[in-house]
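Dear colleague,

Thank you for sharing your sequence with our group. We've completed the structure prediction you requested, and as agreed, I am returning the results in plain text so they can be pasted directly into your records. Please verify that the sequence below matches your submission; if there's any discrepancy, let me know and we will rerun it promptly.
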Amino acid sequence: MADTSTLTDSLKRALRARRINYSQVAQSLELSEASVKRLFSKGGFTLERFEQVCAMAGTSLLELARESDSGRDAVSQLTLEQERAIMRDRKLLLVAVCALNHLGLEEITSLYDLTKPECIRQLLELERIRFLELLPGNRIRLRVTHAFTWRPNGPIQQYFKAKAQNEYFQGAFDRPEETMLLVNAMLPPSMIGVMNSKLRRLANEFAEYHEDHKRMPLGERRSVTLLLAFRPWELEDFRELRRPRPEKAVPRSVAEGSVPRSAPPAA
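Please find the predicted structure tokens below.
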């Protein structure tokens, strides 16, 4: 069973997802806002009050405990065999991505041309692969962490990479909600490592936002894709224009095949 602090943190995330602030919680509990802040920071919730706040957040103590416990055996990456199994069926990949986006059975079948029995079959297959767990009432519990990523250069990343070249970058990236930045620089190796660390932290923050808002109604969320790439690289068109590097001077005696005077005599 998850400890009290873990459950309280999970409840905070559930409240944020519903855009419920401490002031609203205080009004519901008939307490001051300062008292509610102390409850969340130092503990001291009674069971009745905790369950009352859970109801406001659209969850329950049991659900929070299950989520916390499931995170203990969750993985941040699948095996190569698991990814290959998902890639065998386009609909299976679709349902896997929907599950990662915290969509339920009703939401998946309302968005995509899948019948409920067909979607349940795909969910059961993902359960067999150990990607998720199908709970009573066809509720979905992921077996991956919120920082989950597909395998580097694995089957699914290769698939999305090909699609990105043909589809993702066809967009003009000129809408207010779109961003595309191309920045060239020359950095020392130490700064390259720093930049890589910053990008990983940004990706983790993006994953945390996704987790925090998973309980918001589907109509208030949009599917977005963050694509981060960073590596030493120069356009091939530019590389072809580089001057040839001067060859290192070779001592005349060596170039002519003679033995240098400093060399020991042959036996």
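Summary note from our side: The first helix runs from residue 4 to 17.

Kind regards,
the structure core
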